[in-house]
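Suppose a colleague, Dr. K., hands you the sequence of a protein chain of 802 amino acids and asks what its three-dimensional shape might be. Before reaching for any lab equipment, you can write down a predicted structure in token form. Begin with the sequence itself:
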Amino acid sequence: MKTDTLTPELLNRTNAYWRAANYLSVGQIYLYDNPLLRRPLRLSDVKPLVVGHWGTTPGQNFIYVHLNRVIKKYDLDMFYVAGPGHGGPAIVGNVYLEGTWSEVYPNVTQDEAGLKKLFTQFSFPGGISSHVAPTTPGSIHEGGELGYSLSHAFGAAFDNPDLIVACVIGDGEAETGPLATAWQSNKLLNPITDGAVLPILHLNGYKISNPTVLARIEHEELEQFIRGCGWIPYFVEGDEPEAMHQLMAATLEQAIEEIRRIQTHARSHNDTTRARWPMVVLRSPKGWTGPKVVDGLQVEGTFRAHQVPLLVDPEHPEHVQQLEDWMKSYRAEELFDQEGRLIAELAELAPKGERRMGANPHANGGILLRDLRMPDFHAHALNVPSPGAVDGQDTLVLGSFLRDVAKLNQEQRNFRVFGPDETLSNLLGAVFEVTNRQWDARKVNNDEFLAPAGRVLDSMLSEHQCEGWLEGYLLTGRHGLFNSYEAFIRIVDSMFSQHAKWLKVTLELPWRRKIASLNYLLASHVWQQDHNGFTHQDPGFLDHVINKKADIVRVYLPPDANCLLSVFDHCLRSRHYVNVVVAGKHALPQWLTMDAAVVHCTEGIGIWQWASNDQDAEPDVVMGCCGDTPTLEILAAVSILRQHLPDLKIRVVNVVDLMKLQSSSEHPHGLSDADYDALFTKDKHIVFGFHGYPWLVHRLTYRRTNRNLHVRGYKEEGTITTAFDMRVQNELDRFHLVQDVVNRLPHLGTKGAYLKQLMQDKLIEHKQYIDKHGQDLAEIRNWKWGAHSRQMPVPQLMKPAA
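The predicted structure, expressed as tokens, is then:
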């Protein structure tokens, strides 16, 4: 490879720009005042608490300046994903040098006063974090947690044919499971319709205090690993700046030209043969250009350079001079003019306008976001002549709706379905009537729905990748959903948390535009895992989600297919939320007409008058339910109670929007105390069937007046058994629910005692029957609402009192 890509003059300017970025990075970590060292450095110029990470920073600065050069040379649409943890000084400094930071934050001006503010705000109370956070223009990736950079990069590249995402991967980050898997994403990238991802593996050799695996294996083994993942590696290795600048410049040109060759060939010949995309391995010293030795210990090129390489505080006053010498080694007087601005000949190296990586609109995806074209969900409604008269499979019905969403937005190419090989299992297979799974690897005759282009990305069995791809897709201005088995969505608990935090922070930044919501469809849920058993039973994602800010999270548990359609239409139209929707795929009774479902879902909670008989009197008991299976069992229990205790006054309250249970002072969807009391009363016993862990409902309602709340839900009991026996084991079944009501109402006397004994007999009969026959009792399998009454009232809903 030629090593004279840069002319001597351009080499000098490139190195000077890099020095400027390094100077700004050190200044951010250390300085409180005296930003250009126009007087001797004093301890009072240094922040009282110095916090930051230097080790990865000079390497990232090196990458940024060279990416700027190829952006200008090739007029690239490119932005930068910073994967290494806490490399904030590099990206913030470069975004400032290119002018974007001052445009977004006008108080941080391009002069000495602005430099002081830039330095002071870093890792300082009321300022910015030490990693690449939402506050950083040009970022779609929070660097605080490692492992997701490459997944985000691919998500951004899907359906963005002119975009190149430069993804810098730390060698520590490369050891995480999500990142190690993400290398395989190149098997799903279409060179015709998608953009490109340029991974840059930054090998600086160390994590916090340990070496990194990829930096310590032999060169041949590393190259074999990368090639085995389907990439063509280009190596840039060394520590001598001039030689490294020449090598990096030539390497990036070769990589960009190879990307363009792949895309040009594919697009001109309609050839979707899987390409071997280029990637770069940059091996440079950790803490490059920083202090080489501190207190007799080597720092540059060791783990000691990872965070703050030089302690400057009252206990180490001698380090003030060493810090000054370090900063002066960058010769800031040659880089900034008298006013403190980057000199013109260096400023000219940065791209202009939206070609600046900090100003690329893809990194502020709300700018590019366009509404989905939505079908009329009413057209997919199930005909429900009366409550419980027909059975239906909720997600199967939703699948036809999602098919139409995909069809209507094919030309816009801004909607995708993500999932870890569960789209068919979750009964969303109707989408394959209009699209395919995107797959760029080898195919064989028996494969189904695999094609080079498609709206579905579910052909990798990795929840981490699906989550990362979808987040990258949303953050760059598109729409989508993630369908998963409920138990295994827990794999991305931490990724969800990071995205929710991103949404929370960006909501407070006026320059950040809102993006489409992150929509989860959790199917194959805890009550429908009888054949898989205990490992597949975990509704705890709901508990995890509601820990996040009320402005961000929404949780819906529609009781039937028509409610699911109404809820999902709303979720796909929403902005800047995390919407969690739990729905079943097995055939269950359907309760509401579409018109009634729309009203019920709009309210989020309501009395089901057709199931209640307390219209002319105070209820003796309130039966609450949330979730498809709890709703079935609550109504079955109500049916038994009304048959055997016809004088008992029962109110049935169904909850679709879980956050309605929380106080309106805590969540914007929450009910006021007056509305809650109107539904649940102030003092009557509430027997509540809940989809998840019972204590979650108690947590949401702990401030309410009525303390007579008794929740039944999943209590970590399960095995391979029948569907109804799962409910029995967790005491959510109709027989236990009836017993609970009787226990709460001592005035039922002898009638209650006899009914309670009958329910116990039924539980024994159930156990004996399933042990012998391997299926539930016929009366369970064939149960229909209305056995207690000859005539069914017209289904309607009662609105909560204002």
